[in-house]
Amino acid sequence: MVVLEVAQFEIKPGMEQEFEEGARKAVPLFRRAKGCTSMKLLRSVENPAHYRLFVRWATLEHHTVDFRESNDFQEWRKLVGHCFAAAPNVEHVHEAMDGF
Amino acid sequence: MVVLEVAQFEIKPGMEQEFEEGARKAVPLFRRAKGCTSMKLLRSVENPAHYRLFVRWATLEHHTVDFRESNDFQEWRKLVGHCFAAAPNVEHVHEAMDGF
Fold first, then answer.
1. What is the ipTM of this complex?
2. Which of A57, A97, B4, B83 could be cross-linked to B15 through a Cys-Cys bond (beta carbons 3.0 to 4.6 Å apart)?
3. Which residues on chain A are in Cβ contact (under 8 Å) with B43?
4. Digit-coded pLDDT (tens) for B33-76
5. pLDDT for residue A1 is more than 80
6. CATH number of B3-93: 3.30.70.100, 3.90.79.10, 3.50.30.30, 1.10.20.10?
7. A22 vs A17, A100, B3, CA distance in Å?
8. Pick the CATH number of A13-40+69-87 from 3.10.20.30, 1.10.150.130, 3.40.309.10, 3.30.70.100
């Protein structure tokens, strides 16, 4: 079952551009991650320091096991981790209904 | 600028199917809403009582003004509101980066 990882990040004041740049540099890490089929970064309108990363995985374990135990996960955190104001909030969702 | 509404709902225990059924019945309300181009319901893997509704709008005001002030918004809340365990959390996001 396809799952969407929804990771929420609160970024330290003034580090938004650095965070976005780090996320851009991390695109190849996700591109080559097993089972990963898309990655997008969303920014909150109401609170511009609040971002969401949407990453689509073929199965939950492609993210929670394969990716998280890989060197590329460490690399990802090196690129963006210093911009986090708090620990990220990560949840996985699956589609309950495709309205249109 | 296209915005994605991310609405988070905590559903009362045992009312998940009723909530999903209400959301299904509400599809036509969103289909005819001005500026609304897609609507999907996502369910959390970690907490199955936690849902997210993703609704894509042509502009923020199509949601916050046109839809929220419409009779169809009242209709939507009639279909699902009794299933909410708490007030929904609604945020709007725009795409900061389309990785792939």
1. 0.94
2. B83
3. 93-96
4. 999 999 999 999 999 999 999 999 999 999 999 999 999 999 99
5. no
6. 3.30.70.100
7. 9, 33, 23
8. 3.30.70.100
